[in-house]
Amino acid sequence: MTLPENRIYLASRSPRRRELLKQIGVNFATLLLREALPRMADVDETSMPDEAPEIYTSRIARTKAGTGWMQIMQRKLPQLPVLAADTIVVLKGRVFGKPESAAHAQEMLRALSGQTHQVLTAVAVAAQNGIHVRTSASTVRFRHISEREIRLYLASDEPHDKAGGYAIQGIAAVFVAEISGSYSGVMGLPLFETGQLLEESGIKIFP
Ligand SMILES: Cc1cn([C@H]2C[C@H](O)[C@@H](COP(=O)(O)OP(=O)(O)OP(=O)(O)O)O2)c(=O)[nH]c1=O
């Protein structure tokens, strides 16, 4: 099945996700889940008790894509696939989302210093045939980060809107001693899994 215009909607406010989707040449329009429809409830990102990190992140990605799909139905927009994603950092069972404050980011960076953590990004596509989700898991090893480096890093604009309080694509790259998995997944949109999901919903990466 080939969809009209080979286009999709991206339900995300993340500039990284936009950049990564552009990288693979997908035509998309951005759907903003919050601003565009003030009456629509915000996506609740609270985790459930004892919810495993993979289950949590895939549930949130699914909810974001599903909310986007409801929005296009309500606004009577063309029924093109809606793509959304969710990223978390997991350190020894502790889940780090986006820091709520500079102090929270500082706490995350101190915990990540000298340790190996996982980055999970779930990507979801909602279309006429339902919502499909795939998750990418990467392992990232940080070198020791000094208190001075943490202080200076916090003063940069980087940590505040990133899961785990760092951006691998920014200055924090110098903390990354080793990564195994998906670089684009750590940045917020795993392009391998994204390509698979889009092909499955009829979007051709190589038309
Ligand atoms: C670990 C890491 C995360 N991140 C970003 C990717 C995500 O944008 C963000 C995690 O937050 P998310 O809650 O996954 O997404 P978001 O709120 O930024 O955007 P959306 O509107 O799609 O819900 O952290 C990086 O940019 N680099 C990194 O190295």
Automatic annotation (TrEMBL):
Pfam families in UniProt: Maf
UniProt key word Hydrolase: yes
Keywords: Cytoplasm, Hydrolase, Nucleotide metabolism
Enzyme Commission numbers on file: 3.6.1.9
Protein's cellular compartments: Cytoplasm
Catalytic residues in the record: D86
Site (Important for substrate specificity): R16, T87, Q169
Co-factor(s): a divalent metal cation
Predominant subcellular localization, coarse grouping: cytoplasm
CDD domains xref list: Maf
Name of the top EC class for this enzyme: hydrolase
Reactions listed under catalytic activity: dTTP + H2O = dTMP + diphosphate + H(+); UTP + H2O = UMP + diphosphate + H(+)
PANTHER family: BIFUNCTIONAL DTTP/UTP PYROPHOSPHATASE/METHYLTRANSFERASE PROTEIN-RELATED (PTHR43213), BIFUNCTIONAL DTTP_UTP PYROPHOSPHATASE_METHYLTRANSFERASE PROTEIN-RELATED (PTHR43213:SF5)
Family, as annotated: Belongs to the Maf family. YhdE subfamily.
Function: Nucleoside triphosphate pyrophosphatase that hydrolyzes dTTP and UTP. May have a dual role in cell division arrest and in preventing the incorporation of modified nucleotides into cellular nucleic acids.
Name of this chain's protein: dTTP/UTP pyrophosphatase
